[in-house]
Amino acid sequence: MSQMNRRRALQLLAAIGTSGLVAGCGSDAEPEVTSSASPVKIGLIAPQSGAGKAIGDELTNGFELYLDLNDRQLGGHPVDLITADEGDNVKSGQAAVEGLLKQGVLALTGVASSAVMFGIRDIVEQARVPLIGSNASPPSLQSVVYIWRTSYVLDEAGRALGRYLKDELTAADRIATILPEGVLGVEDVLRGFREEFGESDPRIASPVVWTSGDSSPSRTAYVSDINRALAGNPSVVFCFYSGTAAVEFIMQLRDAGFRGRIYAPGFLTEGSVLEDIRPTSDALGIRTALNYSADLNNAANRRFASAYRKKHNTSPTTYAMASYDAAKVLDQAIRLAGEAPSPQQVNLALGRIGQIDSPRGAWQFNQPRTPQQKWYLREVQRDGQVVSNVLVNELATLG
């Protein structure tokens, strides 16, 4: 062996020995990010206009915040985040997914609408590119391989409240159920509530009163239906609305003179709803069930909520939190998939990540690829000059 070759061999052996020593000194710290890691493309699908824009903004904000807090990298790879407008119908959602797939994304995330989630299912499965949905999660979406969800299954909100109210209400209480007709997810919530509370429980005062399902209702859209529901003199109203519809429903319910207790899945008071209700006192006392509350006292939430408030000057919602978690699970899965991850390798790795340390509390994927997680009871209370959702207690672990 020549002197030059011998010197080169010794250098290589020294390098191998050093790297082996470093690898042997294990720690809980994340692996060092190398500058040579190849960038990865992630496609984010969210509504950018119309009635779904508020949720779309939250989905985008949550994912972007995770990237901001992690050097704009996932699994040690710089991220090229490509956003696509989900629109307000299945065709626009399908076009968004197809456009992102043509750009060679490693994974997809987002999706606000359950209708869009159903509409893109076959496209995603055939493309064999993992989708980590961060909002739309209908229970009837079954037997998927490449679709994972970090939010909640819609019937679980009804189950959590049904189980709680069954024991909480007195024998003298009566529940009026008021729901929007034709809104995706409403039947799931109602079924979950009735199965837990009891189909034939006499405290359910009357049949369901169905209202308009318009996402932008008029200021009198619910008046006649509310009056019909209140004719039985209920002490409790169970309902299901979100966004602009939630604002109008709450104000019209209070204008009709109802001062009893209101219970609903958490989206009734999520996002900008509490800011838009006038007077703000109309929202006080409303209790909702959700998988997240911005005032949860754990390390992950303190970091997340503090950073979110600093960046956006408002408290985070469950939509932002689920999208933040979607980025977190992708971070872990891409790291597990290795130096040159493929969509299929990332999808396999998603099944191996185990428990997630989340702002909502620890959770993990179950067999249907949705979260097994805690549900919380929240109450709208006054916090200085504003009203906000305040954690009351844990309701159940579902999933």
Structural features:
12 helices, 399 residues, Rossmann fold, ABC transporter substrate-binding protein, disordered N terminus, 14 strands, 2 domains, 40% helix, 8-stranded mixed beta sheet, 6-stranded mixed beta sheet, alpha/beta
Task: Describe the model.
The protein contains twelve helices and 14 strands. By secondary structure, it is an alpha/beta fold. Helix 2 (53-69) crosses helix 10 (299-312) and helix 11 packs across helix 12 (343-350). It is globular. Mean pLDDT is 90; it is low at 1-35.
Radius of gyration: 24 Å
- How helical, in percent, are the residues? 25-40%
Reported for the largest beta sheet, the result is: 8 strands, mixed
Tally of structural domains: 2
Q: Specify the number of helices.
A: 12
Summarize the helix and strand pattern as letters.
HEHEEHEHEEHEHEHEHEHEHHHEEE
**Arithmetic mean of pLDDT:** 90
Spatial gap, N to C terminus: 65 Å
Stated plainly, the CATH topology of the largest domain is called Rossmann fold
Q: Which helices and strands, and how do they pair?
A:
Blueprint: H1 3-24, E1 40-46, H2 53-69, E2 73-74, E3 77-85, H3 90-102, E4 107-110, H4 114-127, E5 131-133, E6 147-149, H5 155-168, E7 175-180, H6 186-197, E8 209-211, H7 223-230, E9 236-239, H8 243-255, E10 261-265, H9 273-276, E11 287-290, H10 299-312, H11 318-337, H12 343-350, E12 364-365, E13 371-383, E14 386-398
Parallel strand pairs: 1-3, 1-4, 4-5, 5-6, 7-8, 7-9, 9-10, 10-11
Antiparallel strand pairs: 2-3, 11-13, 12-13, 13-14
Helix pairs in contact: 2-10, 2-11, 3-4, 5-6, 11-12
